[in-house]
Specification:
This protein is mainly alpha-helical. It has helices spanning about 5-20, 25-55; strands at about 70, 75-80.
């Protein structure tokens, strides 16, 4: 069961008191927790993001076996493979 706002606040205050009782600045400690979490999870996050981006990119509608006809500047058709 997820903690409600009151429970979260109480836990934060207790943790803050314990950390500061040890002579550690709470905000510095919290920042270090963020740094550690990023260090431990960044590679996995980047891999997941790369896979997501690969799925989102549209595939080209022109395949290598298709031919495309274009007009050049003198209005003559030119076929390109």
């Amino acid at each position: 069961m997820a903690a409600n706002a009151k429970e979260k606040k109480q836990k934060k205050e207790i943790a803050k008191k314990i950390i500061e009782a040890k002579g550690i600045n709470y905000n510095e400690w919290l920042h270090q927790q963020h740094v550690n979490y990023i260090d431990e999870n960044l590679i996995e996050y980047m891999e997941l993001n790369d896979k997501k981006e690969d799925k989102e990119q549209p595939q080209s509608s022109i395949l290598s076996s298709d031919t495309v006809t274009v007009k050049n500047s003198d209005d003559k058709n030119q076929t390109k493979l």
